[in-house]
């Protein structure tokens, strides 16, 4: 395909173009490794698609492909002019689909009237453990990314995930102590003392 006009892409196609743009050139295995350490933390998709999608994009003229002559004869992909134009066109569009939230912990909480208080507290404590593990995971990833250059955007995306987990951690702490009134502290952005106290406590926990 010789046109240099931007083309319509699936979300996986965009992910592939973005990963190749970040790395300059990449094999499907390289993309899989990079996705696991970056976008895979907030954008879920079968990583097996990273082996089929690059070939499709190459056939559309969005990637160029070069196969090694010796060794493992890996296929290395690079952005074409059309591929870069398509990626930039997608980035220039500020519209995004509504965010889908599928959290089984919240689903169980919604039906918790059928369970006892003990079961609810066990659920709340387990959810706190999960969110702490994710916070540590995000912080570990951020340590390997420089705060300048192109990686500053990767760090910003990871920070969003970290903040989401910290807010969720504070939420499940409140659920654990929920009484018969059902009253929970409200969270007002930038002005919530209970939330600030929880986040400060979590920072102190990680600093030790």
Automatic annotation (TrEMBL):
Annotated segments matching region Disordered: 183-208
Signal sequence coordinates: none
Pfam families: PadR, Vir_act_alpha_C
Domain of life: Bacteria
Biased segments, Basic and acidic residues type: 189-208
Annotated Transcription regulator PadR C-terminal domain residues: 101-175
InterPro entries assigned: Tscrpt_reg_PadR_C, Tscrpt_reg_PadR_N, WH-like_DNA-bd_sf, WH_DNA-bd_sf
Record domain Transcription regulator PadR N-terminal: where: 17-88
Record-given protein name: PadR family transcriptional regulator
Source organism: Egibacter rhizosphaerae
């Amino acid at each position: 395909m010789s046109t240099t006009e931007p083309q319509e892409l699936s979300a996986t196609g965009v992910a592939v173009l973005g990963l190749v743009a970040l790395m300059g050139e990449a094999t499907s295995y390289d993309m899989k490794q990079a996705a696991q350490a970056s976008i895979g933390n907030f954008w879920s998709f079968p990583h097996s698609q990273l082996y089929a999608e690059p070939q499709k994009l190459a056939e559309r003229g969005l990637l160029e492909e070069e196969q090694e002559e010796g060794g493992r004869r890996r296929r290395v992909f690079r952005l074409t002019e059309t591929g870069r134009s398509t990626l930039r066109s997608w980035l220039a569009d500020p519209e995004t689909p509504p965010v889908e939230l599928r959290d089984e912990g919240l689903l169980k909480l919604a039906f918790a009237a059928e369970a006892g208080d003990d079961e609810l507290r066990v659920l709340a404590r387990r959810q706190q453990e999960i969110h702490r593990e994710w916070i540590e995971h995000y912080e570990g990833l951020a340590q390997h990314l420089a705060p300048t250059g192109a990686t500053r955007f990767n760090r910003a995306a990871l920070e969003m995930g970290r903040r989401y987990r910290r807010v969720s951690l504070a939420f499940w702490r409140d659920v654990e102590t929920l009484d018969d009134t059902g009253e929970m502290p409200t969270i007002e952005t930038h002005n919530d003392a209970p939330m600030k106290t929880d986040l400060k406590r979590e920072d102190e926990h990680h600093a030790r």
